[in-house]
Amino acid sequence: MNLDSVSLKAIVKELTPMLLGGVLQKISQLTRLDVVMQVRRPGVTHKLLLRLGQNSPGLGLTNQKLPPAEAPSSFIMLLRKHLQGHKIDKIEQHGLERLVKFYVDDKVLVLELFNRSNNLYLLNAPQKIMGMLVRDTKEDSQQAGKPYRPPALPTKPDASLVTYADLPKLFAPFLGQPAAKVLSASLFGLSNQQIGLIVKMAGLAPDESLSEDGCANLAIALDQWQMFLEEDSFSPVISSEGKVSPWSLQDPGEKPIDSLLGLLDDLAAPVGIDDRRGPLLRSLQKAKDKAQIVLERRLEALESTRSAPLMRWAGEAILAHIYAVAPASEHLFIDLSSEFIDPETRTLLEAQNSTEKLSMTNNKSGKKVKAKRSKLMVGMSEEQIAITLDPLLNAGDNAQAYFKEYHRLKRAVEAVQEPIRKAREELEFLDDLLYFTESAVEAQELEDIRRQWNDLKISENPQLKSKATRSVQTGPQGPKAFLYKDFKILVGRNPRQNDQLTFKIAALGDIWLHAHNSPGAHVVIKAAGRRIPAEVLEAAAVLAARSCKVRNSTKVEVSYCDLKQVKKPKGSPPGLVLLKSFKVITVSPHQEIAGLNEYKKLP
Question: Percent of the chain, pLDDT > 90?
């Protein structure tokens, strides 16, 4: 949400008559940077929401269902002690400062909204700091017990307070410069969209050089703009670029909005989303990076077992050429023209030589390193093959050593297959969790994902169960439900719900869909014994395309099949399935579906 100083000023003007004289009843901390205060007036209770996060700072009234409050910090307890049960006497914002003061008896609650350094302070009568929401450890920062220092203001005049008589003198040094630049350089508190509006009102172009006549017109336009700001009623809009204004910006693509006070509900991310999404994404990404390293090591171990057939061939070659092995020999050489060298062995040797050359040069440091070699080794030059021998053993024992190595590598191949499968499944599961975390629109969705991630960690390490922290149990959400042409279409919200949707809610005869080779939601068309029309299948495919990681692509391939073709691999993480057979349909995730209705609750 893009909230400038002018919109904040308009919000305070709308908010003031609704809260003045109201009694502060309850103060809660929803997240580290989100505070809600209930204000009771005769016949109505308002929920005043203060948001200090960098992504959606602001204040307003909210009607949304808020997430459970966190344990209150010491600052929230301080606010409850001094503010609860007391009336709001005055709300003040001076000019276009991004600073709002709430006067409650002899205390002052100060809200600073400067995007990068938002904070909330409680001051006493002598204007000393009693406490603050966000503590700063810098030496020159505000500290409890010291006088409150408001942020330093620019030396330029405030655009909302400057008088008409002063404007020609302010504009005079900038004559000849573009009109938009003149406003930005001479006045404080104007956003780019408000500057563009004032320039339009003056009948000028933003890049037009300011003449004396243009200076007079610009002064008249700014005076009219100040009159807009003094009005008690506004007609707020949001521009095509997502910028908010208390009045029309004369932008052809702008849309009207009901009220500036509802911006936090309408335009900002739901409360708790930003504060919870970031840490969860970082934890999941760290786990994915670790799982990727584990998988690469497993694959390297598997690659090292590729020489198993060579070990068996070497043992056979030693026995076949036992007559040529002299006592204490270190190598057995076989010409490449020998009939004993079959094409498969030649291919294996060429691949081994290529891998060894890569390991010598293509390492992370860029330096040459000595390739690791075992005592038992088969190498190939341009003319012959060299089989390494132990000079302390006779030919027969050397052959048996190679056969023994062959059996060891063969067992290693079988041993590493299961860890590789589990590592791949874990990566797929983490990809799903990352996608659903990025696309979550409610705090409860993130909570469900966090629990699933904790469950996976506990299943891998049962000792973590005793360390698991308790969370507020608000109950899992059901799948998203849509109705199209009398067919129900259900869409999962997370991996565990994908499993429940596919194997518990869906029934035989239903159609199952999922974005092809991409993390995303399981989608089910409830057939109820009816034939699925092509337009219903296409609508469900569009929903699957919108609910996957590549949803911003122009075209997305979606796999679909009858539910009986979907199987669950034993012991696999939630959301992972195998398809016996399927078809693919290509759709655009941006395609509009006329007549598609979403249920808030599963019908």
Answer: 36
Does residue 458 register a pLDDT over 80?
A: no
HSE-up of residue 402 (Cα within 13 Å, Cβ side): 25
Rounded CA separation 354/42 (Å): 83
Least confident of 356-360, 404-408, 412-416: 356-360
**CA-CA distance, 537 to 478, in Å (whole number)?**
22
Contact 523, 513 (CB under 8 A): yes
| 3-state SS class at 291 | helix
Question: What's the angle, vertex CA 572, arms to CA 567 and CA 578, rounded to 5?
Answer: 30
Torsion over CA: 596, 491, 442, 269 (sign): negative
Query: Where are the alpha helices (H) located in 163-272, listed in sequence order?
Result: 167-171, 179-186, 192-201, 212-230, 263-266
Question: What are the structure tokens assigned to 491, written together?
Answer: 């869409």
R_g over Cα of the chain: 35
Question: DSSP class of residue 504?
Answer: I
Which residues, at least 6 apart from 107, have a Cβ–Cβ distance to it below 8 Å?
A: 82, 83, 86, 122, 123, 124, 125, 130
Q: Are strands 244-245 and 597-599 parallel, antiparallel or unpaired?
A: unpaired
Orientation angle between helical segments 5-19 and 212-230, nearest 10 degrees: 30
Share of residues in the chain with pLDDT > 70 (%) = 89
